[in-house]
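Entry:
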Amino acid sequence: MNGGAMSWLDPEPFLRGTAWRDAGGRAVRADPAGLARLPRDTVERAALPIGVRLEFTAGAGTRAVGIRYRATVPRTTDGMREISHCFALWQGDRCVGETFAEPAEEGTVTLPLPPSDGPFTVHPPESRAPVITGLRAIGGTVRPARRLPRWVVHGDSITEGWWSTRPAHAWPAAAGRALGLDTVNLGYAGSARGELPVAQQLAALPADLLTLAFGTNCWGDVPTSAALLYETTRAFVTVVRGGHPDTPLLVLSPLLRPEAESTANDLGATHAELRAAMEAATRDLVRAGDRHLALLSGRDLLGPQHLADGLHPDDAGHARVAAAVADAVRRAGWAGPPTGAAPPATPAPARPGELDGMSGAGLGRGVLGR
């Protein structure tokens, strides 16, 4: 694809992390045909392009890449505009540059490239719901990067990446880089309580690997009992299995939530009891014959010092979760060796034949993408 003539290219072949398109062609994170069956908070968060990014390689002589986009520009109550939009350029597991642009409903930004053919990834400013409308090479050519196996991750605000300082630091993004996967982030802040319409959408969405990381929001404003979460987990996985009978599926149980671990919600369940219920449901499904299901307990992945606000991980916390998830996927035999620099703080491996206390016997051993 030649950008030497400064022509704008269709961004579609370059976009990654996409799941669905709405009627206007925007990348969205829930099936537009099924929005009426989803909770309102899920629908609102699904409109944000969390995890959507551009991936490309550069030809000889390419000095920079230009990006044309549309974005929302909210104003504060005093009429002041927000801070600049940040476009982050990554190569492998390293950020090689950030370019800031003045907030604009329609704008262009130019990102200088290092002397390399890449592949490169550009993370746009997610919170402003940018729509990439074109890109072009400056001084050479750009081509879409090769497509990687698709990893669909469902969870809540932690999965969305809240309190990470950049989109690329969210744990699904970091783990996807380490595993060489195309991460599709279906985290819905304030939601992800095991809604079965979401499970139905996951069942219909093509995926090479699946991860479920919900449960934390079952403790708070919309409380769930331990018994209900046990049955919800079994039902959710069963519905997903309707479309993915043999797809590797990792369940990540809720991370540490200090204020809630021993405090009962309105239905009498502590956070620790909810986590135990989700883990018990997953283990029982494995014992019942699901040979492509694995469990990673979230209880000991983080300490209080890794939580920015007592609930959401900071950058170091997101890196620890990413490392643990990547390690769990590899130990289950679902991905090859590390790609590039591994995320820091990888937890000690489990004993042979075990995955965080759950028997690994019978788990799928195929390597993604091979």
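Residues 204 and 221 are 29 Å apart (CA to CA).
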